[in-house]
Amino acid sequence: SDHMENICGYLMKYTNLVTGWQYRYFVLNNDAGLLEYFVNEQSRHLKPRGTLQLAGAVISPSDEDSHTFTVNAASGEQYKLRATDAKERQHWVSRLQICTQHHTEAIGKNNPPLKSRSFSLASQGSANSPGVQRRPSQNAVSFFNVGHHRLPTGKRVPIMQPDHLVDVREMMSQAEGQQRDLIRSIECLPASGHLTSLDQDLLMLKATSMATMNCLNDCFHILQLQHASQQKGSLPAGTTISWLEPKISLANHFKNGAAQNFPAEINKPASVREEQSIAEPCQLTREPEEINPDEELEDICDDKEDDLGAVEEQRSVILHLLSQLKLGMDLTRVVLPTFILEKRSLLEMYADFMSHPDLFIAITNGSSPEERMIRFVEYYLTSFHEGRKGAIAKKPYNPIIGETFHCSWRMPKSSVATDAGTDSSAHSPSEQATLPKDPEGQAELDYYTVKFVAEQVSHHPPVSGFYAECVERNMCVNAHVWTKSKFLGMSIGVTMVGEGVLHLLEHGEEYTFSLPCAYARSILTVPWVELGGKVNINCAKTGYSASINFHTKPFYGGKLHRVTGEVKQNMTNTVVCRVQGEWNSVLEFTYSNGETKYVDLTKLSVTRKRVRPLEKQGPFESRRLWQHVTESLRDGDINKATEHKRALEERQRNEERLRTETETPWCTKYFLKDGDGWVYYKPLWKTVSAAQTQQMDSN
Fold it and tell me: Which UniProt keywords apply (predicted)?
C-alpha cells in the first residue's frame, strides 16, 4: 500500500505511422484503477483524451529500447508509451504493475467463480464504462434471452440417418440466421453506457457463437462426405451433393456499431457474380500458353503499402481474430481480414524478387566458380528488399489453385556486369546461337530478356511453382515453395518449405538454395516484417557453398534485419568471402584478398517488370483474377474488397468439393510433379540439350 501512490507526468504516446509519437500528460489514478491521459498538464481538469482500466491489464517493457513500454488492457486496447530514460520507465512500469495487481485481485475476491460458466456473462463493466456496476436486468443473458434447450427427461437422441441431413441443414440454416441476428443486435448497441457493443463479454459471445457455427459446419460436411461414400455408385448420373454455404467469414462481423448486410444473390455486384461463375479451371484450356514478350508493356502500377491507418482503426478486428487462434495454430485455412492485404498476389511477390535482373544475369559472367558463387550470393541477398516492398507486414493474396502470373524484364547489355578480363561484346559459341534478333531478324538486339512464370500448383498444402530464364545467357532458375504459417502469440511465422535450383548451362553448374522464414511482428501495434533462419546455397560440381544466417532480433538489445554469411570451398574448407549487414539496408562483402565492397540496397536500381495489359490476360492470371479486389483496396472500400475476395474463395471451395465428389484430379498448366518438387514443363536445360542433340545429328 506504501507504493499505491498516484503519479503523473509527461510520456510519449505512439498514435500511428502518420502522427507518430506525441507528448501527452498521463495520470495514474490508483483508487479507481485507471490510467488517463490529457493533451497537456493545463487540460487536466477537462475530460481525459483516453482512459484504460488497469484491472486485468498486462504491463510490458519493450525490447525495442530501454525507454519504451506497453500497457495492454483486458479490453484489448493498448497504449505504446516511451519515457525519457530507463529509470523513468522502470518507475512507471513498477507503479502500474502494483496498481494492476491490486485491482485484479480485488475483482477476483468480489466475484468468486460460479459452478457453471456456460452463460455467466456478468462482469465489472466494460472498457468504455470503467468501474460501473451492471444492474441485474442489464446483463448479456437477460438482454439477449439466451438459455439452454434441454431434451425431455428419459428421451434419447435418435441416431441420425442419412435422409435426415435435409432436416439438419434446415435447422442449421435457422441457427445461422439467429446467430446473424445476435451479431446485429450486439453491433447496434451504443458505444457508451451500461451495455456497449465493445463489452468484453459480448465480444466473447460473438467469437464463441461464430466458432460454434463453424464447428457445426465442419461436422455437417463430414456427415455429408460419409453419406456420399455410402451412396457412391447408387446415385443417378449427374447427381451432386448439395453443400452448405462456406463458413461464416470473420470479415462480415468485424465492423462494430452498424448492422451488417447479408444481401441476396441478386443484389451482388455483376463483378462478384462474374467471379463466382467462371468455369471450372480444368474445363478451360489447360494447355501451356506461350507468352510473347513483345505483348508485355512496362509496368506502371506502383501500389505503396505504407499506410497503416487502417490497422490502427481496425484494432478490434485483429483482437476479434486473435481471440479465436491458439499458439502454434496453422493459419492456412484461417480467413484473414481484407484490410491487411497487399494489393498483389503471392505469385507476383515471387516475381518481384527478380527486380534486379542485371545482378541475376551477371552471375554467369563470373570468370571462375568462386566468383560465380559470390555473385549468386550477392543477387540472393539483394532480392528480399524489393520483394517485400518495405518492412510493412501486409499479406499478399493467397493464390487460387490454377492461378498464374507472367512477366519479363528487359536489361540493356551495357548494364550487366561482365568479367573484368573479357570483352563485354564477346560471347561463347553456345550463346551466339541464341542471341536475340529483332523481329526482322536483321540485327542483334541490345538487351537481354528474362522471362518469368509462376503457378499455384496445389491448394492444400498451398504450393507455388515459379520459373525464370534468360535464353541469351543460357541460365534459368526453377523453384517450388510451400508456405506454412503459424500463430505465435504476438507475431505470425511463415516457413518457406521448398527448394530452388539455378542452372548455369554455359558452365554446367547447378546451385541449390532454400528460403528463410518470415515473421510479422507486433501485430497489435505497428506490424513489421522480419526474416529469420539459416539458408544454404550449394554447387556440387564446383564444391563451393554458402551459409547465410538471417538473425531475428533478440529479446533485449541487438539490431533489426541483421544478416551474416560466408562463402567457402568445401574441399579445402577455405572461406573466400564473408558478408554482413542488413538485408533491407547496406550489405558489406569482404573478400579473401582483403578487398571490401558495400552494397546500399536503398540506392540499388530497380528494373520495372513488363506485364500484358489486363484485357490480354487469361481469366486465371493474377492481376485479372484479383482486379476487383485490388481496385476496391485502392479506393479504400474494404467492404467491397471483402465481398470480391469471398466470391473468389467460395468459387475455389465449390470447385474443390466437385473434384472430390467426382474423384477428378487437378491438372496443372505449366509445372509437372517431380518427386517431392515441381518442375517447369519446358525448362531451358531440356530445350538446350535437345537442340545440341539435333545439331550433332545433323552433323
Answer: Acetylation, Endosome, Golgi apparatus, Lipid transport, Lipid-binding, Membrane, Transport
Nearest Cα neighbor of 43 from 66, 27, 21 is 27
- Parallel, antiparallel or unpaired: strands 395-397 and 341-345: parallel
Q: Which helix (H) or strand (E) holds 512?
A: strand 509-513
- Say if residue 283's pLDDT is above 50: no
What DSSP element (H or E) covers 502? Answer: strand 492-504
Mean pLDDT across the chain: 76
Residue 59 Cα to chain centre, angstroms: 28
Question: Of the candidates 483, 447, 455, which has an alpha carbon nearest to the alpha carbon of residue 680?
Answer: 455
Distance CA 182, CA 394 (A): 31
Q: Which of 233-242, 283-292, 532-541, 631-640 has the lowest mean pLDDT?
A: 233-242
Q: Which residues, in sequence order, are bridge partners of residue 7?
A: 28
Strand pairing category for 528-539 and 544-551: antiparallel
* C-beta of residue 692 within 8 angstroms of C-beta of residue 474: no
End-to-end CA distance of the chain: 98
- CATH 2.30.29.30 maps onto the chain at 7-108
Grid coordinates standing for 26? Answer: 498521463
Return the minimum-mean-pLDDT range out of 419-433, 566-580, 673-687.
Answer: 419-433
Contact (CB, 8 A) for 349 and 396: yes
Least Cα distance to 479 among 457, 494, 506 occurs for: 457
- Among 687, 363, 398, which residue's Cα sits nearest to residue 513? 363
Instruction: List, for residues 635-656, the tens digit of each pLDDT value.
Output: 888 888 888 888 888 888 888 8
Identify whether 369 is preceded by a cis peptide bond (ω within 30 of 0): no
CA distance linking residue 416 with residue 608, whole number of Å: 16
Phi/psi of residue 519, nearest 5 degrees: -130, 135
The C-alpha atoms of residue 646 and residue 180 are separated, in whole angstroms, by 17
* CA–CA distance, 469 with 449 (Å, rounded to integer): 8
- What the block records as the C-alpha cell of 59 is 504491463
Surface-to-core class of residue 120, CB atoms within 10 Å of its CB (0-12 exposed, 13-18 middle, 19+ buried): middle
| Amino acid occupying residue 489 | G
What φ, ψ does residue 390 adopt, rounded to 5°?
100, -175
Residue 432 has pLDDT above 70, yes or no: no
3-class secondary structure for 150-205? CCCCCCCCCCCCHHHHHHHHHHHHHHHHHHHHHHHHHHCCCCCCCCCCCCHHHHHH
7-108 CATH: 2.30.29.30
Compute the distance between CA of residue 402 and CA of residue 280 in angstroms, rounded to an integer.
Answer: 10
SS3 126: coil
Any idea which residue has 456456460 for its cell?
118
Identity at 57, one-letter amino acid code: A
Nearest to 402 by CA among 652, 681, 680: 652
The CA distance from 454 to 468, in Å, is 9
When pLDDT is averaged across residues 227-252 and rounded to a whole number, the result is 44
Q: Residue 82, SS3?
A: strand
Decide: residue 658, CB within 10 A, 0-12 exposed, 13-18 middle, 19+ buried: middle
CA 553 to chain centre: 20
- The DSSP secondary-structure symbol of 594 reads S
- The pLDDT tens digits for 175-224 are 888 888 888 888 788 867 778 777 777 777 877 787 788 778 767 777 77
- The helix (run of H) or strand (run of E) holding residue 435 is none
Q: How does 492-515 read in b/e, with b if 16+ C-beta sit within 10 Å?
A: bbbbbebebbbbbbbbebbbebbb
Contact 567, 576 (CB under 8 A): yes
**What is the Cα–Cα distance from 515 to 285, expressed in whole angstroms?**
33
